[in-house]
Task: inverse folding
């Protein structure tokens, strides 16, 4: 069983596997102002911080892993093997792992629509753990059918399970909204319909969008300019109806997609 964590089934961190760790640190450090320090997961990982607060982790992509460069959310589970079995039973894919680390075990999976996510069993991750009330990033799954996806993840991650989960699931303004606690907790993720089947652009395919809040519109614009100077590309810019703010999705030089919000 995993060590105690505030909420099983909740996102616990976001991670990027990069082809060149030094180049990737330079890109995100220049674009988002992040600083980096060694991670407890090993010498091939670093923790990104902003103003001394952990935001996410970046690791070196092993040459033997045939996976795309992508920002990936991880969810904490009580038993990584049981979670992997539930994923396979529902015709989804466990792509990597479970892999053992000093602090616990992790695996990468793809849901039935191809959206990639990870899950973690072990000690709470002080390096980059989502803290109740102030998550350092925001998550939104854009998929073909929000309700069907919510059912899949709910069964796999034990959402709305009083005995283990503790994630409250509701339907609001055409989005499935996930909160810690039962209606009164903070929002940890949203699931939205709108993914396009067989889209050439990976931005339009079902995937988990990892968004990093910025200090206003000017900060977003400065980050976009810095990204473009270093080989990044703007993929989409849009207004988010449910947040009342704007967001810009970019592709880093290795192909990793990430989103910046002005709130």
Result:
């Amino acid at each position: 069983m995993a060590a105690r964590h505030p909420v099983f089934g909740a996102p616990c961190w976001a991670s990027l596997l990069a082809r060149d760790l030094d180049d990737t640190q330079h890109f995100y450090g220049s674009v988002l102002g992040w600083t980096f320090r060694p991670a407890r997961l090993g010498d091939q990982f670093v923790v990104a911080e902003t103003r001394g607060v952990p935001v996410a982790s970046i690791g070196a992509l092993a040459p033997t892993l045939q996976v795309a460069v992508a920002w990936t959310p991880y969810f904490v589970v009580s038993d990584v093997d049981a979670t992997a079995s539930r994923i396979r039973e529902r015709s989804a894919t466990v792509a990597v792992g479970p892999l053992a680390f000093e602090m616990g075990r992790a695996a990468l999976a793809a849901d039935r629509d191809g959206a990639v996510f990870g899950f973690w069993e072990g000690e709470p991750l002080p390096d980059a753990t989502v803290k109740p009330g102030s998550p350092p990033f925001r998550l939104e799954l854009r998929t073909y059918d929000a309700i069907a996806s919510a059912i899949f993840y709910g069964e796999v991650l034990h959402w709305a399970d009083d005995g283990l989960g503790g994630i409250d699931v509701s339907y609001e303004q055409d989005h499935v909204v996930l909160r810690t606690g039962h209606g009164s907790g903070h929002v940890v993720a949203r699931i939205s319909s709108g993914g396009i089947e067989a889209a050439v652009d990976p931005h339009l395919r079902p995937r988990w969008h990892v968004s990093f809040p910025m200090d206003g519109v000017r900060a977003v614009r400065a980050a976009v300019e810095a990204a473009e100077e270093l080989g990044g590309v703007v993929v989409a810019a849009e207004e988010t109806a449910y947040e009342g703010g704007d967001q810009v999705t970019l592709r880093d030089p290795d192909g990793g997609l990430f989103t910046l919000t002005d709130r």
